[in-house]
Amino acid sequence: MNVLALNPGSSSLRFQVAAVEGTGDGSAVRRLGGGSLARLGGNATARTRVGDAEPQVESVPARDHVGALEWSLAWLASRALGFDAIGVRVVHGGGSRVESAFVDERELSALRRGCDLAPLHDRPGLQVIERVRAIRPAAPRLVAVFDSAFHADLPEVARTYALPHELCERHAIQRVGFHGIALRSIVERLSAIEGRLPRKLVAAHLGSGCSVTALLGGRSLDTSMGFTPLEGLVMSTRSGDLDPSLVAFLARAEGCSSDEVVDLLNRRSGLLGCSGASGDLREIEVLRSRGEPRATLAFEVFAHRARKYVAAMMAVLRGADAIAFSGGIGENSPAMRAAILHDMGWCGVALDSGVNAAGGVDRRISQAGSPVAVFVVGVDEEACIARAACERLQGPV
Fold first, then answer.
1. Active-site residue 362, yes or no?
2. Would the pTM of this model clear 0.90, i.e. be above it?
């Protein structure tokens, strides 16, 4: 079955037509063609590839996710890359989601009600879904693949907030967790690299959004993101953990609403807010190399928070067999990986600085004798989206 996987980011859209053969985690996924559109908002950068051909890079007019979707569908049509189903990544499916879902009117209404909980991703995802339904009313079945479903069986002690029980019951408040599609890919790729999955694994998925997850036998025991993707690590534009009293304080001090403060925490904080220059770690590292103090502080704050969570997840697991880095930062920033794991020999981590600096994914970067192995893993979310959509199509309607 050929599946079109759509992966909307906060300012990007990745798309891929993949041939899925077989069922379950053992199914084979072969990329037929697709790519990504980044920096949406004007002249986006499109990077596309058919099969194993060399990637092509061009500037395209795509002001938003709808424009990016339309351009992507036209590109696929021009290459005669057809598909039998569509899978779309949806970040926040709620704590009760255990599997993907067909997008009908009822599901669409639920997505509309919940999109404020993950505004940087679920609003773009909803726009993509609505546009697909509008321009392709006779389209193949459309499946929502939920990032949060991976954490559906998060232990009660990890998912519970210390709030009045009746309040949590009334409003379905609990820690949900995200990056589940990436985590599924990490589990698959690391199993292939090592021949088996390390039993106690700490996964640090670091990109525009960042999380650290404790995995026991591939199952989520705890994760840094919570009710929304705002909790946890410092991110590109998201603050991560802070004193909740700051929301009311800033609303009073700045004369704005709590919603406006939450928007600030999502869109103008993190690396961007701390550095005052950029939310892109690549730019932060350039400024840091020039001795720019705020960029240097932003880099160090990011590393400090990530190191704290890596150690916390090791405590949850009562030790770790391995640490895996993934995501745009985790895969491509040797400097940040080294900063996060600096001086962690006390817990059995011994990074090989030369191998770490060499670059590349799907490889071990720890010293041969390190009690805790460290890996860089290249995630393939589109393959997981395609597989999940195919599984849903082959399951009960």
1. no
2. yes
